[in-house]
Amino acid sequence: MSFIDLNSDLGESFGQWHMGDDATMLGIVTSANVACGFHAGDPAGILRTLKAAASHGVTVGAHVGYPDLVGFGRRNMDIASDELRADVIYQIGALKGLARAAGTQVRYVKPHGALYNTIAHDRRQADAVLAAIDDVDASLVLMTLAGSPLNEWACKAGLRVAAEAFADRAYNRDGSLVSRREAGAVLHDADQVAERMQRLAREGVIECIDGHDIALQADSICVHGDSPGAVALAAAVRSRLARSGIKLKAFAETGP
């Protein structure tokens, strides 16, 4: 491919709890998945991140999640469909208001953590999230796990989709992410991560945790903002892609 998006999860600090280096990361990425207050983030901090994203020309997405501040949105929840739909509507709406105040706009939706992994395969919860996006703004792009059934479900629902791969996470052979509870699930070596993403962009493959290559087509690459060394990882990926002739461009700005 000639271009790809680079995104990160930002706006996740909460009060005195500082998470990530948003200011520096916004000088590297092309898209920012901004917390909406359910899994992380407080209004003032979210607004600061949105203003910084606007000043850097970084595209903004709503990073919606389960109502789980204590667990950072990484605990599975069996939420009723109507409640989940309302929760997602609420989060997108809140971020849209803050984004407008910051001089930018929400262009896409990326579910967070356990919600992201659940709706990749759980049709009931996926339908609730899809309906919520349609209720608020059907022009929003949905970022999905590359290769997951959610891609097809979202397209059939009439939503535009951007498939995502993770730079700093290990993959199983079926294309799912290795559980964070398992050793080796999170990658920290910047050179290794950059090389993996170069192969992804160039060849459409990624090495899974057992050493086998699997096919993976992605529109965007994610580096988690809360990971140790996240800025160095993102910078290494950006540099390696640039040297390979791969341009970075926000997927939400490329048209259908």
TrEMBL record:
Species name: Kushneria phyllosphaerae
GO term, biological process aspect, one: carbohydrate metabolic process
Keywords carried by this UniProt record: ATP-binding, Hydrolase, Nucleotide-binding
Function: Catalyzes the cleavage of 5-oxoproline to form L-glutamate coupled to the hydrolysis of ATP to ADP and inorganic phosphate.
Catalytic EC class: hydrolase
Keyword rRNA processing: no
CDD domains: LamB_YcsF_like (cd10787)
Domain of life: Bacteria
PANTHER family reported for this sequence: 5-OXOPROLINASE SUBUNIT A, UNCHARACTERIZED PROTEIN YBGL-RELATED
Official protein name in the record: 5-oxoprolinase subunit A
GO molecular function per UniProt: 5-oxoprolinase (ATP-hydrolyzing) activity; ATP binding
